[in-house]
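Quarterly update from the structural biology core.
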Amino acid sequence: MGIPEPATAPSWAAPSEVEQRLYEAKGRGDWGAYFDVLAGANLYHAMSRAFADANPGKVRAGVYWEPRMGVECYAYFTQGMLPAPVEDPVFYSDTLDELVDYWPRPDAWLAVNPGTPCEAFFPATPAHRAVWKEHADRAPQTPPKAVRTLWVGGPLHGPVAHGLACGAFLMVNNNEPWNAMAYHGHGYTTELRTLERWWGVTDRAKWQEYLEELLRGEMVSSVWEFVLEVRRSIGRQYGGPVEVAHWREVTERVMRRNAAESPSPTNPDAEIARVQQLIGRITRYEARFRADGLLADGKYVRSVLAWDYGRASGMARWGVGARFGSVAEAEAAVIRAGRVSQATYNSWADFSAGYVLGRCLHFDDEEFGNWYQGVLEAHRLLFSDPQSPWLNIPWK
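Predicted structure, tokenized:
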């Protein structure tokens, strides 16, 4: 059984909803509810970075002596209780279900958030772990998306918070706190694998290179941005809505002029045909965005640079989780992401539409499948959840 706080204990400013729920369950002595919370949370334990780097795929957890219980314990922490990332140790992420099967020593206890007001200690014999398994089996395999926030330990206002909020799409999709600057993600080894799998980033130099490209808006397709810039120019010149036919006509004229003025003139017909197809895709996406509430009637997407800037906000933090960069470096990059976003867009809604269009042009291929539905769900949460930074941080 765990150790409850005295009934007269003062209230506690928990860092997030997870720790608050643990604290409340502990105060009631409701250990079933306590384990229900654990079953839906990531649980982290410290591990030597040297061991993790030298033994990919292997995990090692150390015990410590807990004098209050008179036993050795394995210490596990929920995300809100993790310290700021340092070079060593790193943290490995488990689930309660995984602990059931891979508990190293039945005589060693489970210590949850030791040294904090929501701490508790539990024996870990096979019989006890069978009870853990019951709770783990009841937990949803895929937690519902939500706007997760660090109430303590993460910025809620100001330039850093604004830059973090530019990456909120990614954090909502990944069930991460949107304002975790001291980022651990899903644990050191997982963050390394994820960066390598999705980005080909395996070292600090490549992380820095890609982060800079994202902050400069150099990863997004220049053709996409060119087409949107033509429409913006027409709108500035004539005012009012831009007819698609006019947009197509001006785009072709600009492309032919550019080809003629090139040091090596070429026939632009094939490229013009591809760009006309792109204009068709963009107009169809925008029509769907308006139908789904991503764009207001009569509005259009200003730019797709948000696709880079939002990912830059995420990349800064992913580098911290993988130990390619420091929290201070990531914070500076996040602030830049916020500033370039503010310079390009007029509102969170404007930024959101640009991000979604960039993501869809990159991944979705007009299928309106998971790549679109997932980001649509995140958009709706970010404009409805009372904890959303988009509802609490002014755009400018």
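Confidence is low (pLDDT under 50) at residues 1-9.
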